[in-house]
Amino acid sequence: MKISTIFRNKVLDKRRDKFIKYTLSLIFWLLVWQILSMVVDQEILLVSPLLAVKTMFVMAADISFWQSIFNSFVRVFLGLFLGFVLGTGLAIMSYRSRTIKILLEPLILTIQTVPVVSFIIIFLIWIKPSNLSVLVSFLMVSPIFYRNVYGGLSSIDREILDLARVYKVSTYKKIRYIYFSRIETSLRSACEVGLGFCWKSGIAAEVIGMPTNTIGEKLYESKIYLNTSQLFAWTITIILLSLLFKWVFMKVLGCIFESLEL
C-alpha cells in the first residue's frame, strides 16, 4: 500500500472519529434540553428542541423568513469585509511604523474593552438603525484582524528579509512568499474568531436598532409577544447560519491560499 494512501486513510479516520464525537456531544445536550423542558413543563419559559425545530420549519415556509436572513447576512458580511480591510490595513501600517502602532494602541484597546451594547447605544444617536449592525460588526472585528495580522508580520525573521534585500528579491515575490506565508495562519485564526463574533455583535445591534425585516427585529418581536418557540427557532437559525457561513468562508479562504501556493 502506498504511503499517500495510508496517510489519506488516517486523515479520514480522524475526521470520522471527530464527527462521531461531536455528534454524540450534540445529542447529549439536546437530551439535556429536552429533559429540562419536560421538567419545567411550561412552553412560555422553555420549549422543547423538537418544537423549536418544528417552528423553524414552519417559519421557513414564509418568504419574510428568507428576507430577514438575507438582509442580516448582507449587513454582517459587509461589516466583516470592512473589518478585514481596515484591520489588515492598520496592521500593515503599524508594522511599518512604530509611531502609528503607538497611536493606534489606545484606540484598539478601547474597542476591545468597551461593551458592545455601549457602542450600539452611542451609534444609534449618530446613524440610522438600518446601518447600525454594519458599523457595530465592522468595529468589533477590526481589532481581531489587526492583532492577528500584526502578530503574524512581527513574527517574520529579520534575517530572511535581509537575505531578500541582498539578493534583490522583487517586492511581489517578498509579499507572496515571505509576508503572505507568515500571515496565513494569523488570517485563518482571525477569521475563525471574527466570523462568530461578527454574527453575535451584528444581531445584537439589530435587536436594539430594529431595522425592518432582519433577524434582530424578529427576535425582538418574539420576546415582546412572548413567543418562546419562535425565539428559540430564530436562535437555532442564527447558530446554523453562523456555522454555514464560517464553513463556506473558510473553504473559500483555503482555496485562495492554495491558489497562491501558500
- Please tally the β strands and state the result: 0
Element order, helices and strands?
HHHHHHHHHH
Strand content: under 5%
Largest sheet: none
* CATH level-two architecture of the largest domain: Orthogonal Bundle
Question: How do the strands and helices of this protein lay out in sequence?
Answer:
Layout (H helix, E strand, L loop, with lengths): L2 H38 L8 H12 L2 H34 L1 H16 L2 H11 L2 H26 L3 H9 L4 H39 L5 H10 L3 H32 L3
Helix pairs in contact: 2-10, 3-4, 3-6, 3-8, 4-6, 5-6, 5-8, 6-8, 8-9, 8-10, 9-10
Membrane topology: Multi-pass membrane protein
Protein name: ABC transporter, permease protein
Keywords: Cell membrane, Membrane, Transmembrane, Transmembrane helix, Transport
Question: Could you give a quick summary of the protein structure above?
Answer:
Its main location: membrane. The protein has helices at about 5-40, 50-60, 65-95, 100-115, 115-125, 130-155, 160-165, 170-210, 215-225, 230-260.
